[in-house]
Amino acid sequence: MNTELRKEIEDYCSEIPFLGFSSQENIKQCKIAYMAYKDKESIEDYKNCAVTALKKNFSRLNYKDDEFDNFWDELLKHIEENSYVIERLDNLNLLKR
Questions:
Q1: In the chain, is it the N or the C terminus that has fewer CB atoms within a 10 Å radius of its CB?
Q2: What is the mean pLDDT of residues 30-35?
Q3: Which has the closest alpha carbon to 83: 45, 47, 31?
């Protein structure tokens, strides 16, 4: 498990209350997608660290476990969509290295 990627996911999950669906949130999702793509990591392997960070940051709201799982599923969907775009850009040699 890539520690930089894990830290980026944990940071993202801790910043969610402050991002408020801003463009910064999209940038962070793209960064996570790019890091996972670059290192050939499966983002699904990071569910536990993401859900743990979410529970830590949202503990006062009394969310249920399935609500955290639903959030992770939505986040995973967005990251996978970004990964798809990154892969296409890379295949066209449009990514700077």
A1: C
A2: 94
A3: 31
